[in-house]
Amino acid sequence: MLNNLSSTYTLSSLTISNETFALCSVVSLLLGLVISFTFCFRQRKSKGFILSLMILPIMVQVVIMMVNGNVGTGVAVMGAFSLVRFRSIPGNAMDICGIFLSMAVGLATGTDKLVLASVFTAIVCIVVFIFNFVPIGRSSSVKELHVTIPESLDYNEIFDDIFEKYTSHSELISTKTTGMGSLYKLTYEITLKDVKDEKKMIDEIRCRNGNLEINCAKKATPTDQL
C-alpha cells in the first residue's frame, strides 16, 4: 500500500499535491480555531460545540476537494448531507452563524482560495468581537418577578396598579399552587421604567401580598448547546 503513495492525488478532475493539501488543511485548522475562539468568547458553550467549530472547516475542505469537478459525486454528497440532523437542542442565532462561517471557510479552502477564506474570517470575527463589547440588546430593566400570594387573593389584577406605576411592560407568564394549595406562586415578566425604583415596587407588593416571598431577578437565559 505504501508503494501507491505519491506526491500528488487525483480527486475527480482536480489534481492536488501533498503540499497544497497540507497548506489548505493547516489554514482550515487555524481559521477554525479563530472562529471557535471568537464565537465562544464570553459565552458558555459545550466542549463539543467548541471542537465542532474548529474542525468543521477542514472536514468541509476535504469533501469539496473530493467532489470538485465531478457533478455526479457532488449530487451524491449533497444527498448524504441532507440525511444528517443535529440531534440536540436548538442553538441561538450566533451558534448558527458560527456553523455557517466554519462551513463557508471550508468551502473556500477546499477550492484553494486561502486568501479569501482568511480575509472573510477576519472581517466576520472582528465584527463579532465588536458586537460582544457593545451593549446592544442587553437591558438590565427586563426582570423576572416571582410573587407568592395567599389563596384568598385574586391574582388576575391584584398588582396591575403597581405595575402601571413602575413598569412599561408586565405579563403574567405562569401560575403555580404551593403549600397544599394554600398559596399561589406567580411569575411575571416585567420591564422597569427605572431600575432604581425596583425596591419601591417590591415594598408596595409586600404590603399587598402579606409580606410573603418575593423574588425579582434578571430574566434567565437558557444555555444553548449544539
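The record above closes out task 2.4. Task 2.5 opens with a second protein, given below.
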Amino acid sequence: MDSATFFASCFLQLVRLPRFDAVISMTSPPLISVLAAVFSRRWAARLMLWVMDLNPDEAMAAGWLRERSATARLLERCLRYSLEGAQAIIALDRFMKERIATKGIEEGKIRVIPPWSHDSAVCHDPEGRASFRRHHGQEGKFVVTYSGNHSPCHPLDTLLAAAGCLSRRQDIGFCFIGGGSEFARVQRLAGHGGLGNVLCLPYQPFDQFSASLSAADLHVVVMGDPFVGIVHPCKIYNILRLGIPFLYIGPPESHVTEMLPPEAVGRWAHLFRHGDVEGVAQCIERCADSGLQRSEQEIQVGRRFSQKLLLPRMVELLENRVNAPDAGASGFTAYAGR
C-alpha cells in the first residue's frame, strides 16, 4: 500500500508539471524509473537512468518472486522499457553494467560511475570514537562492526555464527548498526540466543556517522552470492576513506575484490566465502591479537572513490547529455526518486 500510494502521488505530481527537457531517474523505490520513462516520452525529454539496484532481478535472486511467473515477466518488461528509453544509463560497477547489457541494452550508452564517499561528513574521529565506545560499553574491546542495511542481499549468518564461536572472548565485541528486514532477527539472536558479545543499534544520526564508523577496529562488508551486479556494496567507500581494515564475506569475484590491490589482501582486507565460519572466526581472533592499525594505503585506495573525483564525472555526463544539439532550449531538468 505504501508503494502504491507513493507511485500514485508521483503520477499525479508529474501530470501537473510543465514540460521538461531532461529527466534523471533512480531505481529506488523499485521501478520508479518506469514513471520517469513514461513522462520522458510524453515530454520528448532526455532520460538519464541512475541505477542503484536492479528489480525485479533483486526480488528473484532473493526468492521473493519466481523467475518464470507472470508477475516477474511483467516487471522485467517494465524495467526494459525504462532502460531502452534512456539516453544514458549510469551503472555503479562493471558487473552491473554487464547485467544491464545482457538485457539487450546498447553498451555504448551505459557508463560506470561508482557512488562516492561522504567526503564532507565522514572523517576519522578519535574523540567521537572514544565517546561512542564508552557510551555503548565497548571500551577496551576489539570491535567488529557491520553498519548498514540488514537484508537477504547481505546475509549475516556467517558473521553471526563466528560471533557465537567467539563468545568466550570477552575482549571481542560485535556491533550491528542499521535496520532492514533482517535486523529483528539479529536482535533476537543477540537477546535470546546467548550472544552477549553482540550489540544491536539502529541507524545513527548523520552527525554521529563519523563517530560510529570510527569506533570500529574491523569493519565487515557482506555481499550475497546471487546479488553481484544487482546491488552495490556502497558502504565500502566510507570504510576506505577512514582507513579501517575490513573483512569481506561474499563471492570471490565482485566489485569489492576487483577494486583491491593484490598487496591489500591479508593486510587490511580479509576475504572469505559464505559458510566459512571457522575461517572468519580465526581471522577476527588474529586481528584482535595483532592490534590492527589504520592503513594509509587503504586511504589512498579510497581517494579513487572520493566525491571530489567522481562527482565532476557525473556532472560532465549529465551536462553533455542535456546540452547535446537536439536537447530542448529551456534546459529544465526533473528528478525522479525517493
